[in-house]
Amino acid sequence: MLSEFSLIDRFFASRARANTRRAALGIGDDCALIAPPVGEMLAISTDMLVEGRHFLPDVDPNALGHKTLAVNLSDLAAMGAAPLGFTLAFSLPKPREDWLAAFSAGLFELADRFGCELIGGDTTAGPLNLCVTVFGSVPQDAALRRDAAQPGDDIWVSGTPGDARAGLGVLRGEWQTHVADAAVFRRALERPEPRIALGLALRGVARAALDVSDGLAGDLLHILERSNVGARIDVDALPRSAALARLPLAVQRQCSLAGGDDYELCFTATPGARDAVEAAAQHAGVPVTRIGTITSLDPADPARAKPGIAWHDGTGAPLNLTLQGFDHFHAD
Amino acid sequence: MLSEFSLIDRFFASRARANTRRAALGIGDDCALIAPPVGEMLAISTDMLVEGRHFLPDVDPNALGHKTLAVNLSDLAAMGAAPLGFTLAFSLPKPREDWLAAFSAGLFELADRFGCELIGGDTTAGPLNLCVTVFGSVPQDAALRRDAAQPGDDIWVSGTPGDARAGLGVLRGEWQTHVADAAVFRRALERPEPRIALGLALRGVARAALDVSDGLAGDLLHILERSNVGARIDVDALPRSAALARLPLAVQRQCSLAGGDDYELCFTATPGARDAVEAAAQHAGVPVTRIGTITSLDPADPARAKPGIAWHDGTGAPLNLTLQGFDHFHAD
């Protein structure tokens, strides 16, 4: 296998060995050595992507390289952390030069754009599996945590969630759309843009935040549970791309609320911070939309005793939504 | 899948959420937040274990849990780093309660022994794949690097390398041995002991170091190449367990020199540090053996122009060894 794995050295290790800007020691030793800037914490997240579950076998390898790192950078964004570096461990059945060239090009294009250096890794033969652990830095008291939402906070979302799920639906033949819209959806699905600049701009502005990987409804619930609060969401306020708005309303809602893989940020902030939030969004070049309010729990009211979401429409009328959870590419 | 994956929450996430000793923020947010002690670096290593390549499908899951973390802790040991925490990402075909209970028990028994906390992770459905990223801390100038060997250094090895490979040979039917020896070999293969205490004791004593995962001959070459030096090894000086010494001499040498999965440390130190090395080993409770010397390269001598190993026997006579590289569990 050694001659085949020298391909991996060519596309990854040789590149990582040159990375000595952030890491005191990178690939080639037993460990990489890094340190966060003085006074800051290291923010760490790990994500594993498996063929057939997180991506289709015929996915464009350049897009896969992008997405493998993007989903991890998105976790840093949701924390308000600045990217430092990452490790990449992967197993693949048989190294193919064209595949590795395209995968590594997509990966490093994104890594370079965010100054995020490959500092270590592992490669082995096996069913295709990609595991990135990413490292960023953030001052401890500036970190955007999930447990910091408070009653009265506005709830915001970046971008236009739902496009990635719409793209999956097109790939699966669940619905049709014309070619230009299909391209918008597919790009959202294959090349999510980690909202690093927005996360950094929201330090000291937002209270709680996370990135939407498994659908807005399910992910927002993580904030509610960790913060022990409820939420009231105006479903008509949800931002939709022009392409998504051309699909049937039920599909729009399904995609916006329960569609995953968008990697937009969902965050809360006090109403007094609205101008600051808008300024942060403008600075980051990412649109943000206010979609609801954090509410307090009421043990005396069964409907509000536990963390949960009350949906309503633009007129304030309650909506009873049945949302199907996002299941990535798997059918079970 | 959610109900099945609640098993994972039970065995892993709930436990990690309680880990707030070292991490300011653990599992349950987008990122974990940690920092090395003031003035130290974070040492980071990642290893991916794949069924059929790194372990057999019928492996004892408790032993697999131990080994999954042990191979990563071993990288910290080789760096002279103190364990802090780890992330665990894994895919598995179908969560089974008994398997997960045994796997997590083996994993956490070792983690607790070294005060190494689970701080994050990811789980997904897919072919069995285990990816750990481990974090330790070490003062930058105390790190045991691979590129620090110098001509004249002694070459040392801990423990009795070869037992793990002997165990694999017994499992594969390559050779037979009696039951007691087979148990020694199998334990070496399935429950390698990361040499953390030795690595820490060798700070300021050893120069270069690494852990032997792919066979002494191949791994030592990494030190030689990174340090741009050669080595002279006395094959008869290699420490062998009593069990290994009962196998044929050719098998002993194959196991000692080219056998992987032992996770012993191989390191260099000046001859003036011999007493200090012995004291460090005694302090750590791990035997160490001097097996050779680092030599300088000689561009004028084709045999010594490039980093490489000159083998000789106890009388000083050169040996011409043909070593088969270690291939874990794979046959190609």
TrEMBL record, chains A, B:
Q: Which amino acids does the record list as binding Mg(2+) 2?
A: 47, 75
Which residues are recorded as binding ATP? Answer: 121-122, 146, 213
State if Kinase is listed as a keyword. Answer: yes
Q: Which residues form the PurM-like N-terminal domain?
A: 28-138
Q: Give residues annotated as binding substrate.
A: 54, 261, 326
Q: In which pathway does it act?
A: Cofactor biosynthesis; thiamine diphosphate biosynthesis; thiamine diphosphate from thiamine phosphate: step 1/1
> By what name is this protein known?
Thiamine-monophosphate kinase
